[in-house]
Amino acid sequence: MSAELEAGKKESRWKLSLDTWAVLVAFLLALLVRTGVFKHIPW
Amino acid sequence: MADAITVPQVQPVQPAMRFMRVIPGVLLLATVGYSGKLLEQNVGAYAKAHHWTFPNIEYVLWAIILGLVISNTVGVPEIFRTGVATYEFWLKAGIVLLGARFLLGDILKLGGVSLVLVAIEITGAIAFMTFLGRVFHLKPKLTSLLAVGSAVCGVSAIIATKGAIEADDEDSSFSIAAILALGALALFTFPVIGHFLHLSDRVYGLWAGLAVDNTAEATAAGALYSDAAAKLAVLIKSTRNAMIGFVVLAYAIYWASQGQAKSVGNKAAFLWQKFPKFVLGFLMISVVATYHFFNKEQLGALGNLSRWAFLLTFAGVGLRTNFSDMRKQGLRPFAVGAIGEVVIAGFTLALVYGAGKLFGW
Fold it and tell me: Of the four, A25, B216, B254, B335, which is 20 to 30 A from B141 by CA?
């Protein structure tokens, strides 16, 4: 197997799913609210 | 040592490039969603100022209608499509953030009841869809996909099952089209039925979460009724989503036993791979919120962030629904799906009513 395919396989093993990205972004936003970076979010 | 066969080098898309590609579509989602919000505020005020009788249409419905109009008239140009497809990402981020509005005790209290209701719904829906598939002589794997789509969680469940049971692309396209078309219909029929039957927010939210298949449509159907109904619809729908791994595993084992799919090696790894991680995120945020990690103002801010994320989702629901594409997929799977959905909607409504009487909701 070529080195490129090996590398591709390794990369895809570490690729995060859409679900996981959504969770990470939501946690980051929650942390920014908690630390006061985002004080007020209007609606 | 060089390989004897040279593999064509595929240029990977750089992360920065990938990010740039989603921007136009995300801007379109934001524009359509925000226009829906403006229409909600201004149409109602305009009608009131001119003494017209006009129903109060929520931003949810405006955003979906605007999206549907664009998608079914001028269409969504290629440049926007990658970004429009991110609506599922916003949906999941919105659900995780919504976790802050739930106390763990409420989830456990409702979770126990909802788990029983979800188990009954999944068993009943799979049994009935399998029966209908046989009556209408649908291909067995197509029937499996339709059964999973209507019992568990729409498109994600169909995609997960397709891989596990090695179904045809054509079968999964049929099932996805049927589930999406029926989800779009549910958006318009569920709130009307709910108001007609004077359902409480709790009963309606439980019903929408149990009967509407796709998570985005279930959230929208709940939000079209009330905020409280939307919260419950999301909770119940997430409970259904959490079952996806078990149902897909059961189907994978069945089709492997028929010699028509690969057998599943490590079942625990399979379950983890299929488990929707946003459900865990939702629970984790709820746990920290229960232990006062956020103050009242911060909880309000998280609730609003979740609303903004849903706003993009609702715009995406309209923009990705194209009726002419769905028509091309044929009538039979749609008919099976439609009959199944009507029966499941009636069955789950009776179930929720029964539970309401039992628990005094």
Answer: B216
Q: What is the CA radius of gyration of chain A?
A: 18
- pTM score of the predicted model: 0.77
What is the ipTM metric for this complex?
A: 0.78
Q: Do B89 and A30 touch (CB under 8 A)?
A: no
B212-235 pLDDT per residue, tens: 988 888 999 999 999 899 989 998
| Cβ <8 Å between B277 and A29 | no
Verify whether the Cβ–Cβ distance B96 to A33 is below 8 Å: no
Cβ pairs bridging A and B (under 8 Å): 80
> How many angstroms separate the Cα of B311 from the Cα of each of A17, B6, B243, B274?
22, 48, 26, 27
Nearest CA in chain B to A22: B93
Q: What is the DSSP string of B249-275?
A: HHHHHHHHHTTSSPPPS-HHHHHHHHS
Amino acid at B160: A
Of A3-12, B173-182, B248-257, B349-358, minimum mean pLDDT range = A3-12
Residue of B nearest to A18 (CA): B89
Q: Is B9 on the interface with A (CB under 8 A)?
A: yes
Instruction: Spell out the domain ranges in chain A.
Output: 16-43
B67: confidence class by pLDDT, cuts 50, 70, 90: very high
Nearest neighbour of B277 by CB, restricted to A17, A30, A34:
A17
Are the C-beta atoms of B197 and B353 separated by less than 8 Å?
no
Task: Answer yes or no: are the C-beta atoms of B122 and B152 closer than 8 Å.
Answer: yes
The backbone region for B77, taken as left when phi is positive above 0, alpha when psi lies in -120 to 50, beta otherwise, is beta
List the domain boundaries for chain B: 89-359
